[in-house]
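> forwarded from #structure-qc
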């Protein structure tokens, strides 16, 4: 049953993304993308078995339309692991998110908050897919560079939970 619900949620995510792009032509230029890297600190015992901290890399794609007024909608995919090796001992969160902007300050800086939901692919001892949510706060340090902190919470799977806190630095093209 969980796999069916997860499949329906993934198809919904694709449907929302497709509907967003259908209203405007998709912008696949670099200006729609963000690259980020940082550290993940597990708050769940199963995930802590991988290590006290994990390396994280990620990419975001800003959709041409927003789901909610006053912000921007983006799709985020990340990869968490003890190192830059792929395979067992990793988590891959894929979420659709809404970013809400706050106060502006010098050098095009601005604070923001974000919320997201999606799927977490947890591959510790066994591989499983779970619902995952994320929320966080960030600050644009200038037009391109940002720093953010995010909290993650997921359903329990055979492989554990992806409950963690992440710290990132990134670059928006």
């Amino acid at each position: 049953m969980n796999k069916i619900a997860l499949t329906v949620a993934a198809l919904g995510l694709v449907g929302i993304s497709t509907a967003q792009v259908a209203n405007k032509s998709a912008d696949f230029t670099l200006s729609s993308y963000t690259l980020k890297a940082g550290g993940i600190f597990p708050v769940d015992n199963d995930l802590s078995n991988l290590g006290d901290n994990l390396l994280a890399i990620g990419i975001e794609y800003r959709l041409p339309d927003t789901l909610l007024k006053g912000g921007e909608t983006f799709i985020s995919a990340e990869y968490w692991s003890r190192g830059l090796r792929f395979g067992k001992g990793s988590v891959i969160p894929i979420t659709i998110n809404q970013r809400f902007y706050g106060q502006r300050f010098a050098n095009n800086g601005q604070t923001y908050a974000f919320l997201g939901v999606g799927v977490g692919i947890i591959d510790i001892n066994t591989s499983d897919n779970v619902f995952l949510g994320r929320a966080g706060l960030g600050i644009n340090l200038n037009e391109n560079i940002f720093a953010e902190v995010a909290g993650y919470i997921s359903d329990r799977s055979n492989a554990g939970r992806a409950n963690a806190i992440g710290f990132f630095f990134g670059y928006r093209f």
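QC bot note: Helices lie at 2-23, 45-48. Residues 2-172 form a domain with the Porin fold (CATH 2.40.160.20).
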